[in-house]
Amino acid sequence: MNAPPAYESILFQLNVAIPVGAAGLCPSSDYVNNLAEFYGSQLQEVDFSAPDQTAQVINGWVSEQTQGKIENLVDPSSLNPLTRLILINAIYLNAGWALMFDESDTQDGAFTLLDGSQVTVPMMHLHNQFRYIGTESFQAAELDYQQYNFSMLVILPDRAN
After folding, report:
1. DSSP code per residue over 15-68
2. Residue among 100, 92, 102, 93 nearest 150 (CA)
3. Whether 10 contacts 96, CB under 8 Å
4. Is 151 in a helix, a strand, or coil?
5. Cβ of 102: how many Cβ atoms within 10 Å?
6. CA-CA distance, 155 to 100, in Å (whole number)?
7. Cβ neighbours of 66 (radius 10 Å)
8. How far apart are CA 94 and CA 67, in angstroms?
9. d(C-alpha 110, C-alpha 119), whole Å
10. According to the model, what pLDDT value does residue 20 have?
11. Residue-by-residue pLDDT tens, the chain, 161 positions
12. Most buried residue, 4, 64, 81, 130, by most Cβ within 10 Å?
């Protein structure tokens, strides 16, 4: 097994953005405390009758938490003046792989679209042993990150399902 390269620029960062916007609610102190303690979030008073302003507040918070990767999660047209509570989840993860893909091993390959047609795209290749399971209904492989016992689980459903 190849050792991971020492990329000092690849840090493990995980932000879970859970902004909660409320209008005219008086939530229990337990609810507000649980948001802060378990989710690192807070209840923020917003005015759903001003959808542009409310979307700007929510999108700004999400953008900050996701390092600008998600900028427009909420569209003002999706907000309704009768709304009293909105809960949004956005996750930002920046982490290095335990086994890095070698750019020189990238090869063009056929990728099948939902309509059955195929396009040619660059595909990464890595030859190693991974945790894998294959059943009649799906295949799954687990790819480890460098730190904190995190991994990505890739699941490929069977074509018939």
Report:
1. EEE--EEESS----HHHHHHHHHHHS--EEE--TTSHHHHHHHHHHHHHHHTTT
2. 93
3. yes
4. strand
5. 13
6. 20
7. 19
8. 10
9. 6
10. 63
11. 444 444 445 566 776 656 566 677 777 889 888 878 887 777 778 888 999 999 998 899 888 888 898 889 899 999 988 888 888 877 888 888 888 888 999 999 999 998 999 999 999 998 889 999 999 999 999 999 887 678 999 999 987 65
12. 4
Taking the mean position of all CA atoms in its chain, how far away is CA 107?
27
Copy the structure tokens of residue 137.
Answer: 């209904």
* CA separation for the pair 21, 84 (Å, rounded): 8
- The Cα 84–Cα 41 span in angstroms is 18
- Residue (of 112, 144, 123) closest to 154 by Cα position: 144
Bridging pattern class, strands 151-157 and 138-144: antiparallel
Owner of token pair 């399902």: 161
Tokens, residue 100:
């890095």
CA dihedral 61, 63, 64, 66 (to 10 degrees): 120
Bridge partners (DSSP) listed for residue 140: 133, 155
What's the rounded Cα separation, in Å, for the pair 19 and 40?
9
